[in-house]
């Protein structure tokens, strides 16, 4: 993957510059195939995502169907591929499904994972005089438009009686935001892990506030409705989700091992990967796609509708399928404790 020119102390792989939360980059490639049999499950992924974790946890063995992997650099184009029936299922953060729903895309959220939001942070430079979020009034803040960080910024400001109109929002994708932040051209940066871990470990900045207790900490597996109507593919999706849930649980007890795999797969420094795993990744648990979850995502949708970033009201409940919930805990269950 190509790298963008940013300060060496804060260099991150291009694959992570748009991962999961924002951006508009398209698919990378479709190269890896696992399993055997005549049925092919087309799975959309992001670098260091589902394929890497399943492989590390040993969950790609004994497949009686084939998985064809397609790698995307961010959630929005991944969901475009789901909508276009180019892939059957893929993993994204909590915000891309809301925007896809707002665009009328044919997508269905079929599984959810919940973690802490301590890695979702508003960062300030190490020498900043800001010590409380309410001091952000009138200040410039970089954030990726339509990202989970965008919502976290709105929610964090609201908690202290501020709104987006009270600050100077600079809508920048992570590569540009990173450069602006390190050059002192913005007063703060709303972003997610592993950027949070990278900035903290490089001592370029510190946390002003996090999304913990403010945002829902959800990630999703989103499927194409046509795949769900196909009995054989629906069964393969069920098996795939069960494997992914076991792999997600595996991370909690194998944090150093997963950090090594993740660092190798993405190009992240091991120390950054491990810090991000401890603060964010290892906290995730599988939860049911239920009414409280729908209500939480609806709140995000309504927020972006009010900001006119989504053209009209979205009923998120129309874009979920609860058939794979099984005996999973409710979405209100507390995520695993963070070590970060």
UniProtKB/TrEMBL annotation:
Coiled coil: none
Organism: Streptomyces lanatus
Record keywords, A-Z: Signal
Stored InterPro entries: ABC_SsuA_sub-bd (IPR010067), Solute-binding_3/MltF_N (IPR001638)
UniProt keyword annotation of Signal present: yes
Top-level taxon of the source organism: Bacteria
Pfam family, one: NMT1_2
Entry-linked PANTHER family: ABC TRANSPORTER SUBSTRATE-BINDING PROTEIN, ALIPHATIC SULFONATES-BINDING PROTEIN-RELATED
Region forming the signal peptide: 1-26
Record bears the keyword Lipid metabolism: no
Gene3D superfamilies: Periplasmic binding protein-like II
Domain Solute-binding protein family 3/N-terminal, chain residue ranges per copy: 38-253
Family recorded in the similarity comment: Belongs to the bacterial solute-binding protein SsuA/TauA family.
Protein name: ABC transporter substrate-binding protein
